[in-house]
Amino acid sequence: MRLLVRTLVVALLATIGLALGPVSGSLADPPERGKAFDADIKQIGAAADFSWDAWPNTYGEYWMKPHWAEPKTAKDIWYFQFTAGASDKVDRLREKFPLEVGRLQPRRVDHSMKTLWRALSQAGEYLHRKHPGLETGTSRIDWRHNEMELFITHRAPKVSRYVERRWKGAVNVIVKSGGPVRSSVSRTTATASDFQQTTEAEAYGRENWPGEFAGIWRRSRDAKPKTEKVIYFVGFTSGAARHVEELTRMFPLESGEYQAVKVARSEKELLKVLSRLPKFLRKKNVDAKEYTLSFEAPRNAIGVEFTDPDPKIRRALKKRFGRAVVVIRPG
Question: What is the pLDDT of residue 53?
Answer without folding.
Answer: 82
